[in-house]
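Writing this down once: the sequence line spells out the residues, with the fold written below as integer tokens. This is how one looks:
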Amino acid sequence: MGFLNMFGKEPSLEEGIKAQQETKGSVLLDVRSEGEYAEGHLEGSVNIPLPKETPLFVYCLSGARAGRAVTFLTKMGYKAVNIGGVSGHESKLVR
């Protein structure tokens, strides 16, 4: 069961915050503008404003998760492309 289907419906803000707090290693992402974020945001959130015009190049290990993410992002109106996975990447990865 994927995270997005965890509740069988889109969670309320309160349900989402609770799930995020209970999910180890998760990120609470605020995609509003920097100004909106500065005016007030949820504690512990990270702000990365993503205008829908911003080209998104998405990757994962094999390309499968990136493909699912691109499908989701595209349905939301973002310009996203799956660039595959790093498992076959010839250049050295950075840490």
